[in-house]
Amino acid sequence: MESTISLKTKGKGKGSKGASSSDDKSKFDFVKEWSNWSLKKAKVATHYGFIPLIIIIGMNSDPKPNLFQLLSPV
Amino acid sequence: MADLLPPLMAAQVDAKTKVDEKVDYSNLPSPVPYEELHREAFMSLKADNFEGLRFDFTKALNQKFSLSHSVMMGPTEVPSQSAETIKIPTAHYEFGANYFEPKLMLIGRVMTDGRLNARLKADLTDKLIVKANAQITNEPHLSHAMFNFDYMGSDYRAQLQLGNSALIGATYIQSVTNRLSLGGEVFWAGVPRKSGIGYAARYESDKMVATAQVASTGAVVMNYVQKISEKVSLATDFMFNYFSRDVTASVGYDYILRQARVRGKIDSNGVASALLEERLSMGLNFLLSAELDHKKKDYKFGFGLTVG
């Protein structure tokens, strides 16, 4: 929360200098924020989905094992 | 003239002609990958000694797909400020899934506390391999990932590494003759802003391997492995850091017997360790590990069983 407050005040300060420079800065910030957001989502997706992905790919490879073999401990 | 020489002289002449045979510089073998430069030495000198109980069960569902269940119980070390090591007994269970195909390999391991360790290796083309390795935890800012792109040429290998907190590295290794390969690496880390460069050389023959590596972080590593017979090999290693002035020398052995494999080493830091892996029957392996650190008075013993 503190970091977002400081970003906003920086933006207001620079906006008074020149319109073009603030546009470039906000484009770069936009790309950075978007890449941060997508990396966070990719991290969560990998965390929950990697092992199920391996299991799905493995269960569809041939010879196809059946569900009982997946769940039984023997 | 050859039949006038006594048999011993004839054998020496034959050996000499074999060594001096013309090296075909246009057709050199592919070198060992840069990260596996010290592979033979680290097999005996950096065996994975553990403390406590270890039980691994791997269940193969078909040729390509297998599941693994691992239980580990024992004291784990916690980094502490004082000179004493603090050990906290922990127990964890790890579930893993592996998928192996000639062109794609996926390995995933998840622990009871939610940590995921994921590895991927894919052959995009004949010569280009992409590898990814990630450790993801629930705590923020403690996860990391690394991507490697390897290109294998006819007598060289090049690799590009990208890591998650702005870490970029590149390595290159080239076969110079049939036995000698030289390589270098360069890396740049964003978070502690530093960069480094290193060089490495590896000389191997049928019976021995010698490697040396220097890096601008101050680390110098040299090792030598001699294969005494099919079953026995001995290795020795010398590491020093010219900034922090730490020196470590170690000597180790690796005995590969029919039913067992014993690896041990002794160190100049006063550490003696050994690892025994014995095959009790088909698919059942028994492990015994011991590590005695006489300087810090820390003695670790471990035993385990691997099924499948």
UniProtKB/TrEMBL annotation, chain A:
Tagged with keyword Ribosomal protein: no
Domain of life (superkingdom): Eukaryota
Subcellular locations according to the entry: Mitochondrion outer membrane
Protein name: Mitochondrial import receptor subunit TOM7-1-like
Biological source species: Camelina sativa
Classification via Pfam families: Tom7
Topology versus the membrane: Single-pass membrane protein
Family: Belongs to the Tom7 family.
Keywords annotated in UniProt: Membrane, Mitochondrion, Mitochondrion outer membrane, Protein transport, Transmembrane, Transmembrane helix, Transport
UniProt-listed PANTHER family: MITOCHONDRIAL IMPORT RECEPTOR SUBUNIT TOM7
From TrEMBL, chain B:
Localization, UniProt: Mitochondrion outer membrane
Membrane topology designation: Multi-pass membrane protein
Keyword Cytoplasm recorded: no
Keywords: Membrane, Mitochondrion, Mitochondrion outer membrane, Protein transport, Receptor, Transmembrane, Transmembrane beta strand, Transport
Main location as per UniProt: mitochondrion
Superkingdom: Eukaryota
Any Pfam family hit: Porin_3
PANTHER family: MITOCHONDRIAL IMPORT RECEPTOR SUBUNIT TOM40
Family that this chain belongs to: Belongs to the Tom40 family.
The protein's name in its UniProt record: Mitochondrial import receptor subunit TOM40-1
Source organism (scientific name): Camelina sativa
Lineage of producing organism: Eukaryota, Viridiplantae, Streptophyta, Embryophyta, Tracheophyta
